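Task 17 of the worksheet. Students: predict the tertiary structure of the chain below and write it out as structure tokens. Keep your answer in the requested format; marks are given for formatting as well as content.
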Amino acid sequence: MAHRTRFKAAITAVSLLALASGGGLSAQDGDSAQKPASAATLRYFEETTASLPWNDKEDFDLATRGFVAGIPGGEIAKPDGKRIRDLKELDIFKGPRPDTVNPSLWRNAQLLSQSGLFKVTDRVYQVRGIELANLTVVLGKTGYLVIDTLTTVESAKAAMDLVRAKLGNKPVVGVIYTHSHIDHFGGAAGVISPEEASARKVPIIAPGGFLKEAISENVIAGPAMSRRAIYAFGHLIGTGPKADISDGIGPAFNRLGNATGSVHMLPPTHEVTKTGETMTIDGIDLEFQYMPDTEAPAEMAIYMPQLRVLDMAENANSSLHNILTLRGAQVRDAKAWADDLTRSIALYGNRTDTLITSHFWPHWGNTKILDYLGAHRDMYKYLHDQSVRMMNEGLNGAEIAENLKLPAPLANRWFNQGYYGTLSHDAKAVYQRYLGWYDGNPATLNPLPPEAAGAKYVEAMGGPEAVLAKGRAAIAAGDYRWASELLSRLVFAQPDNHAAKLALADSLEQQGYQATSSMWRNAFLTGAKELREGVKTGGFDSVAGAIPAMPLSDILDLLAVRLVPERALAAPMTFDLVLDGSAPAEHVEIRNGVLVHQPVGAGVPKAAELKLTRAQLVAGITKKPQDTALPPEAATRLNALLALIEAPRGTFGLVTPNP
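Model answer:
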């Protein structure tokens, strides 16, 4: 196969070049300190970024256009005064680029560091740069229509305080969630209180399936996703030249030493389920394009015909996005994404003078907007079509990722750079969507798990000292990918081999410095930190805060994936769970090591009832004291159920074996 031959030749050439050129890190580097950028990393920057259009400064004008004011004091805090965001951290981008940051990613971070209230048009404003996403405000006849509400209540309140200070003390007349990711709905109660929204019957609009997806996407696999998200978003490494420098689609903020903000979503009062649906809120006419299964399972674009403004949500950011996130999620449909952008251009392209998105900065002018949307659409179409073409020629996911390159007309556009997603992991996601994890080679059908394979590889290569020496030699040659592969085998074979961990950390660190993608940088640097300092173990439950708002059926689905089969086999049970004394009750059976449930109703056998309030059930699951004592029979049955359940045990290993 021609492509497979070129793939092998490319890898051989890269390896030989690295071995010949020298990496700039001594083979004896074995201390636990962070390292500077190596000579190989500096050469990598020169070789991979020189062709980018550095003379194109338009984005700097777009990102700063319309600035009104920043957040007073440059900090956002909880009511008790504990700081959650220090916006002054963004001042680092006024200085020179450190050698430990990819030049393209540094440019991305500089642009995303523009923070405050910005005027987009006469009636549209955005608060940008205080969280990962943007909060958009549209001025109606009497008040503010808010589109997307940031991640935290505290940041959303700070944004609205700034809006009111500069634009007037007006009420919120409507809230729109563009899609079902938390950075677009988590701060809703900071925009308007639940009590006020209910009393004034304020419309809260979302795409079809929003509530289900917002609750469920991260629940079943929540702990694993949260652990991986810590790597992707750099929660453990802080910010700075050798740490998190950008989140790719928004600014990076130091989570170390700062408080965690509050999350409070207000449920939608209406979900948009078809393209072409229209409505008017406070004199603002709205048209919707329903775009499910693109960047989010539930997503939509919004067009405002009176203002000739198009909000593309998160389907046309100024970066290549994820077809599969590094934290883990359902694989997205790159073809549907491209096709929906084609539909957006047809529906709104000739009617749009201003384009806004849920991240980044606006675009102005119809000609420029059509060029932007078209070239961005072409990128996703190319990613999909060429990945499938190579897949059908016999390349597997890794081979496609190594071969896939954008053509110059797409590769030379700043908004198509991989600051968040990458061509590499997106191509593998396209392959996964069509063919799954198996590459068709029977030798990979039933591989050994990492620890067993590591031990055998180390033995076959002459023992741990030989592998460590080869890994250090690869680091010295600047061949960091090969060094990481070698040394990871040794770490999984010998988890207590401190020298192997330090060497592996050095190889990961240089790859972090080299990365254009913020997610790759953070993952590499977090892995290096945990290798040097150890994995901080401890109990956690990433979805505990969501349980109070979950439907009963979703709570039972969560308990089902926490059921310990050995315990369940020894204690089968059947009961009808009645929550808050009302329907729908759930018929629960624990049998054969599984928890099965269905709504009580026709055809479902009757069983003894377990009557609880939601607060009692939540307290039991989260191991909190009960506010009121349960009747003895209910307490016995609830305790018997909870005895079969085990919450995730703590922070598991990613770059090292599980403890």
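Marker's comment: The longest helix spans residues 366-392. The longest strand covers residues 582-591.
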